[in-house]
Amino acid sequence: MNPSLISRYLFRNLAISTLIATVIVSLVAWLIESLKFFELAINGGAPIGLFLYLVLLAMPPIVAVVLPIIFFMVILFVYNKLTAESELIVLRALGLSQWRLAKPALALGVIVATFVFLLNAFIAPVANERLKTVQDMTRTQFAGAPLNAGVFNSIGDKMTIYVREREANGDLSGILIYQEQTNGRPTTTVAKRGIVVEGDHGPEIIVFDVSRQEIDAVTGRPRTTEFARGTVDLQQVAEALTTRWREPSERTLPELLAGSQSADDKGFEMAFSAEAHNRISSPLFVVALAMVGLYTLLGGHFDRRGQSRRIMTGSVVVLLIQGTSIGLANFARNHWLAIPLLYLAAIGPSLTIFVLFARANDGFQPWRQWLPRVLPRWAVFWQPA
Questions:
Q1: How many contiguous H segments (helices) and E segments (strands) does the chain have?
Q2: pLDDT tens digits, one per residue of 174-204
Q3: What is the pTM assigned to this prediction?
């Protein structure tokens, strides 16, 4: 018997199953995310290449969230399949300890944890920031400016637009535009309807039945001008979108650790810190979920009646761990105490399951022999009665 050959066999099954499951879940998520951008491609006339690019940018944050759950489910699937086909029974009979059987999953878990960390720390934030910018610019270019009906829409710091109603085809009705000109004088434009188009220098609104009011430079009094058709330049939309404030989810880990970098960042220090620690702890949760999956099917003796009860219990524990991590990540935005609890929620289950695993199996005898020598007798709680 070659233990390394068996480890490679288990590692290969786990790796292939994880890859296939990740691809399948990613395709499902890809289809769901694509629904958000169908309107731009169908009604707005956005090219298919841009549509696919937007969907691709939406994938890294999703993969970073679902990959730990996928890996946990793969561990359950592979080891349960090996148990049902009596392969694990044969491997145990050949003298392989439970730790030897769990080693390939732990090795792959380290790889998955590293990939999740890279996604959360660098890839997903960049993709998220690019997605929001390109999405807003695309809507501006192909579906009109991001104008919400019934509210005052601030475009940069020099223009405010109010639209009473926006038709299904994108046409605007009941338009009020307040704009500060380059000479510093304000202008108010009222139009019955308008159409957003792409001009030579960016998006524009072609307005009809227009009444424009501005301050006369000579008399200082309001002057009203009426005309049938006019154009309002929305180049400030593009400038406002490209210089917008980036949320914590759009910043890489080094940027979050650097803290406030501009006046607009003041007051968001705790949000930056909470997001940074959430990303640092994310690989620890991957290991915790892997440990839960391994203990679910390897922690204890073989049960001929099946593993359904263990699988259900392990799934509930994983849901509790994931729910705790999400809750503490949100709680940490306003309370510093939640940050150490976030790490405790990731490390605690792994250490607990490590001890339970050692107690339930006899394949790690050296650990049982030397650790009681360095701990007091009351602390040796894992020894069987």
A1: 13, 6
A2: 998 888 776 667 888 899 888 877 666 666 7
A3: 0.72
